[in-house]
Specification:
Length: 308
């Protein structure tokens, strides 16, 4: 699939000598939802700021739909909508005025119908004449999203868009993301709510210490790195794992009533049948068993630890 954003050999070193980004290479596919995950201080916001032309790169090149973010800044930036983490709005402006003004900043002609559509989609229509300073934090977050959508961008960056907001806004936010994606908008989001990335994203990128650790289709990532566990609920408690089972990757619960076996779904043999035979030979009886699959959060934590 064609890339709408292409990042080549991107690095950012601040005057203090701190190297926030290290030789980043990344392509964002047109029309996808791309989740960028990483711990605090990993470089997520710096990377987004650099792609959006807010932070100057030290090295490398960024193309947005073929436009260089430095040499052809105006054209590149007009394609991008950005919802920042910080609630930066004009406190004494009305909702309608500040969203309309944002559209004008990109040289777009007035389009009241589009502004009305955006405000209604974000449940802001009844607040259109309210001053920003009178709104709740959640409503201010909605205004930031409306401002980012005011000039009809083809790429939308959402930097921690649901951090600290209520459940209703989170639900509305993801409904909006789905509808934007259906209309052809490419969406790049950072989030601490990994369940959101697992639910919404097509591809996952993990950044740690300023470096891209991994970029993978979500389904493939879950298939390749997801581990499965088989848990045996024992009929009688065990004090320790018998020596005859030492060859298996087994964990005995603190209460001694559960045995958990972790296995690789990619391996030719899972070893489950052999394990059950050896468990039976050891005289261990179980009343039930179940399997679980690693979540994206489990995979993310493992990748970040390995990248440190």
């Amino acid at each position: 699939m064609q890339a709408i954003i292409s990042v080549k050999n991107l690095s950012k070193t601040y005057a203090s000598g701190f190297r926030a980004l290290k030789n980043i290479n990344l392509d964002i596919r047109r029309g996808e939802i791309f989740a960028l995950l990483g711990p605090n201080g990993a470089g997520k916001t710096t990377l987004i700021g650099t792609i959006c032309g807010i932070v100057n790169p030290s090295e490398g090149q960024i193309l947005v739909d073929g436009h260089d973010i430095i040499a052809d800044y105006r054209a590149a930036r007009s394609i991008i909508g950005l919802v920042p983490q910080e609630l930066t709005t004009d406190a004494f402006e009305s909702v309608w005025d500040t969203v309309s003004f944002s559209r004008g900043l990109f040289g777009k002609p007035a389009n009241p119908q589009h502004i009305e559509k955006v405000l209604k989609e974000l449940s802001l229509w009844d607040k259109k004449d309210n001053k920003i300073r009178t709104l709740s934090g959640g409503m201010k977050r909605r205004v930031l999203i409306a401002k980012a959508l005011s000039h009809e961008p083809r790429v939308l960056f959402l930097d921690e868009p649901t951090a600290g907001v209520d459940v209703e806004l989170r639900r509305d936010m993801w409904q909006l993301v789905s509808s934007l994606r259906e209309s052809g908008v490419t969406i790049i989001l950072t989030t601490h709510y990994i369940d959101e990335a697992e639910q919404m994203a097509d591809r996952i990128g993990v950044i740690s210490n300023g470096e891209i650790v991994l970029v993978e289709d979500k389904a493939e990532l879950m298939r390749k790195l997801g581990k499965k566990q088989l848990t045996l609920h024992l009929l009688n408690t065990l004090e320790r794992i018998p020596p005859g089972l030492a060859g298996y990757d087994l964990h005995l619960s603190s209460k001694g009533n559960e045995l958990t076996y972790t296995y690789d779904t990619q391996a030719e043999r899972t070893g489950i049948l052999a394990l059950l035979e050896d468990v039976n030979a050891a005289g261990i009886r179980f009343k039930d068993l179940h399997t679980t699959q690693s979540s994206l959060e489990d995979i993310f934590v493992t990748l970040v630890r390995e990248g440190q």
